[in-house]
Design brief:
The chain has a six-stranded antiparallel beta barrel with strand order 12-15-14-13-16-17. The longest helix has 20 residues, at 95-114. Mean pLDDT is 89; it is low at 234-239. The protein is 24% helix and 30% strand. By secondary structure, it is an alpha/beta fold. Helix 3 runs antiparallel to helix 4. A hairpin with a 2-residue loop joins strand 16 (373-378) and strand 17 (381-388). The chain has helices at residues 11-22, 48-62, 72-88, 95-114, 160-164, 175-184, 206-210, 226-235; strands spanning 2-6, 26-33, 66-70, 119-121, 126-133, 136-143, 166-167, 219-223, 254-259, 282-288, 293-298, 306-319, 332-338, 346-353, 356-366, 373-378, 381-388. It has three domains: 2-210, HUPs (Rossmann fold, 3-Layer(aba) Sandwich); 219-304, SH3 type barrels; 306-388, Beta Barrel (Elongation Factor Tu (Ef-tu), domain 3).
Length: 390
């Protein structure tokens, strides 16, 4: 089989390519160049040119053809512009999830098919199985064997057509096993540190990155006392209040500092507030991008950070397994849910209410933010995902 591997210049994709070559496949290495502007990238944190060189060295070592594919225009349009729009609206996007749906398993996949490839492979720590369900071939996205590195969350927006062409060669391996094999076969990337930051951009100074298009606007940081939140919770009984964040007003708290723009922050954020002298660290409880106010509270157990549920608009909900789709109002089903990478799966009840898919957790969750992707699982299989709307 001819397979195109997305060689990122890291050890994971390097081992994936080697495994496929050893299995007898015709392998082509393809590096995606998706970013040009290095002005916001932190020095010495894997600039793209170093990654491309590493990917080329790996291809040479393995003995496979190698090409560079420039998708920077599409990446800016589909991913970076999306990020700016989401932050401007006060939401917290996850560009890595979108990158997999829009770039790696769309544009990259199409480029691979033009090279005659039957499949594409990546170095993701996840697995794919295929079953015959009621006479229909169904592809199942499952967690990687290494639960500490499982990356199925980042692939939660893939559809059946994309999964049909996807291969994850290291999904049955742990990270230490990958490192050990890379050293054994003397891959140039064997000891290379894992990349951090935005997909294909690298580790960036996010405020500076966002300031490329978003205006710096000074505003108040308002601290909300924990006992005030408890008072509101005792008196609030509006429908759906378990899934909605508390709406603050300035009079609920006291001004303790100044920020450079509420849209630069996210719910649950601790760093970057630059407000000292408190018994406990301050965390962002909520942000009002219309009034440009940032609401904060002391301590990671502040009740203003906690919510029992979330909801997603049905038109922003994606089912990997269409056969498990919740179709009827009031039909309830139990799933395990996460809304952040590496977050332990949380038990929850899901149901459709009107225009929303509603998730109610068994235990209150901290740091739920609009714009994040919530992904739900049954056992080891990712069933679907959606964008948290509020």
């Amino acid at each position: 089989m001819r397979i195109v591997v997305g060689l990122s210049g890291g050890v994971d994709s390097s081992v994936a390519a080697w495994l496929l070559k050893e299995a007898g496949h015709e392998v082509i290495g393809l590096f995606m160049r998706n970013w040009h502007d290095e002005s916001v990238i932190i020095d010495n944190e894997c600039p793209w040119i170093d990654d491309a060189n590493d990917a080329m060295l790996v291809a040479s070592h393995i003995g496979i053809p190698f090409q560079v594919l420039d998708l920077s225009d599409a990446y800016r349009e589909r991913i970076v512009d999306y990020m700016f729009e989401e932050y401007e609206q006060g939401r917290t996007p996850n560009p890595d999830v979108l990158c997999n749906r829009e770039i790696k398993f769309d544009l990259f996949l199409k480029a691979a098919e033009e090279l005659g490839a039957e499949a594409v492979a990546t170095g993701h720590y996840c697995r794919k199985t295929t079953s015959n369900i009621d006479g229909i071939e169904v592809h199942q996205l499952k967690t990687g064997i290494d639960q500490n590195k499982d990356q199925s969350y980042f692939l939660c927006q893939l559809n059946q057509a994309q999964l049909a062409k996807a291969l994850f060669p290291i999904g049955e391996m742990t990270k230490p096993e990958v490192r050990k094999l890379a050293s054994k076969i003397e891959l140039p990337t064997a000891d290379k540190k894992d990349s951090q930051g935005l997909c294909f951009i690298g580790k960036v100074r996010l405020p500076e990155f966002l300031q490329q298009q978003l205006e710096v606007k000074k505003g108040d940081i308002v601290e909300i006392p924990a006992d005030h939140v408890k008072c509101i919770e005792r008196t609030k009984n509006s429908p759906g209040h378990a899934t909605s964040p508390i709406r603050w007003i300035r009079e609920d708290g006291v001004v303790v500092g100044e920020h450079q723009g509420a849209h630069f922050f996210t719910v649950g954020q601790r760093r970057g507030l630059n407000v000292g002298g408190k018994p406990e660290p301050l965390f962002v409880l909520a942000k009002d991008v219309i009034e440009n106010v940032l609401y904060v509270g002391q301590g990671e157990t502040h009740p203003g950070l906690l919510r029992k549920g979330l909801r997603m608009r049905l038109d922003e909900v994606h089912w990997i397994r269409q056969d498990l789709h919740l179709l009827e109002d009031k039909t309830t089903r139990d799933f395990d849910v996460r809304f952040r990478y590496r977050q332990p799966l949380q038990k929850a009840e899901m149901k459709i209410e009107g225009e929303y898919l509603v998730v109610i957790f068994d235990s209150a969750q901290s740091g739920i933010a609009a714009g994040q992707f919530a992904a739900w699982y049954h056992g080891k299989e990712c069933i679907g995902s959606g964008v948290i709307c509020d």
